[in-house]
Amino acid sequence: MDNRYKHLDKLSSEFERRFGSAPTLASRAPGRVNLIGEHTDYNDGWVLPVALPFEVNVAARPREDGCVRIVAADLGQEAEFGPEDTEPSEDLWLRYPQGVAVEMRRDGHPLVGLDAVYGGDVPRGAGLSSSAAVEVSWVQAFALASGLSLPGPEIALLSKRVENEFVGVPTGVMDQFISALGREGHALLLDCRTLEYRHIPINLPGVSIVVVDTGGRRELASSEYSRRRADCEAAVERLRTRLGDIRALRDVTPEQLEANADVLDEVQLKRARHVVSENARTLEAADALTAGDAPRIGELMNASHTSLRDLYEVSSPELDAVVEIAGGVEGVIGARMTGGGFGGSAVALVREEAVEPLRDALAEQYPPRAGRAATVYVCKAAQGAEAKRLS
Ligand code: GLA
Question: Could you state, in order of their start, the residue ranges of all structural domains in the chain?
Fold first, then answer.
């Protein structure tokens, strides 16, 4: 079933109502879930995400005067900005399209203006990269309208810059990269240092990717995220006194870490142990996925969760509850928290016959532990971002 551009009809009607004629182009970009490789991207390591069948669409028509008029269909908001408006808007939602236009122009791309309506169904605040989907979808729309053909990695880096510098969140490159370059039926193994990537077929017949939104929102996420980054950088500084010219935890083997554990304080050692072991798990998981070795992938996912909970300390009681409940259901291959942590979602690989039992177990056991219900999404890996002309 082709479920791409699923919001386009609705957004086109809205466009006609607001701007008086039909849009001439559209873009789409998906959210993501990371199968494994958590808090490794900003340590120059590896990640293994998939694009989800939730997406942001932009319906647009170019304007010659460089101005951009935008309707945010899901937010009931409307705003406009011109090429000279390069300071981040007071309105957080507007910073995304505005940041995209500013950063693209900063890169020397000549941009036309747009009339546009956008919206989508990537759950917000659930750790499924709704921000990256918005950024990448806007890059796609501006690029097509302006006659530019940008390679996927460039789209990802541009979008990441919008997130870091315009929205002000110091994330790594994973979310934007998978949104820009995901492939249906595949996970994406990305080397976050070199940006080399490989699409890995999800060679697990009869297995679903199940995303469980805990409903817990990530209040701590941004301050703790920055602290984790700082812990990792401090660990690298200290390890450098022994290991010479290392740039990131990516350059440290488990053996080197243990042999030099005494230069790190207790917290730094825990953080580094997570990152170094998670990198190894991620590379092994990519091989296991290629080989169709479900039990091994499950073990690696479960080990990843334990490491994120105990060493990196970014899980939450709700995430732990989901993972524990899932672990008690026969046919669940593996489960872990996914994304930044402190709330948001967990991901599980689940045999089809175990999907309903998992739903039942969560419906019964999660609310008494969390005080709210979890939301379950059963997904297949979706296609990354694109744009098309409508007329
Ligand atoms: C967030 C960030 C990503 C990545 C994950 C943790 O999702 O946006 O860049 O760092 O956390 O793996």
Answer: 8-203, 207-379
Write down the catalytic residue from 41, 44, 115, 175.
175
pLDDT in tens, 9-29: 999 999 999 999 999 999 999
Q: Is the dihedral of CA 310, 315, 321, 327 positive or negative?
A: negative
Average pLDDT over residues 284-311: 98
Any catalytic annotation for residue 245? no
Ligand 1 pocket member 163 (CB < 6 A): no
Phi/psi of residue 12, nearest 5 degrees: -65, -40
Q: Whose CA is nearest to atom 1 of ligand 1?
A: 340
Report whether residue 278 contacts ligand 1, using a CB cutoff of 6 Å.
no
Q: What CA–CA distance (Å, rounded) separates 88 from 100?
A: 11
CATH code of the domain made up of 207-379: 3.30.70.890
Residue 156: partners with Cβ closer than 8 Å, 6 or more residues away? 136, 173, 176, 177, 179, 180, 181, 195
The number of C-alpha atoms within 13 Å of 75 and in the hemisphere containing its C-beta is 14
The fraction of the chain above a pLDDT of 90, given in percent, is 96
State if residue 39 touches ligand 1 by the CB under 6 angstroms criterion: yes
| 345: Cα separation from own chain's centroid | 11
Residue from 255, 270, 264 nearest 39 by CA: 270
Class of domain 8-203 as given by CATH: alpha beta
CB 355 within 8 A of CB 210: yes
pLDDT value, residue 219: 66
Ligand 1: which residue has its CA nearest to atom 9? 172
Pairing verdict, β 207-213 and 68-72: unpaired
Q: How many CB atoms within 10 Å of residue 201? A: 13
* Secondary structure (DSSP) of 187-207: EEEEETTT--EEEEE---TTE
Instruction: Let me know the angle formed at the C-alpha of 221 by 219 and 224, rounded to the nearest 5 degrees.
Output: 120
Between the CA of 29 and the centroid of ligand 1 the distance, in Å, is: 17
- Separation of alpha carbons 330 and 312, rounded Å: 28
Strand, coil or helix: 260: coil
Pocket test residue of 175, 227, 232, 314 for ligand 1, highest count of atoms within 8 A of CB: 175
Tens digit of pLDDT for each residue in 160-174? 999 999 999 999 999
Q: How many CB atoms lie within 10 A of CB 180?
A: 31
Phi, psi of 161, deg, nearest 5: -60, -40
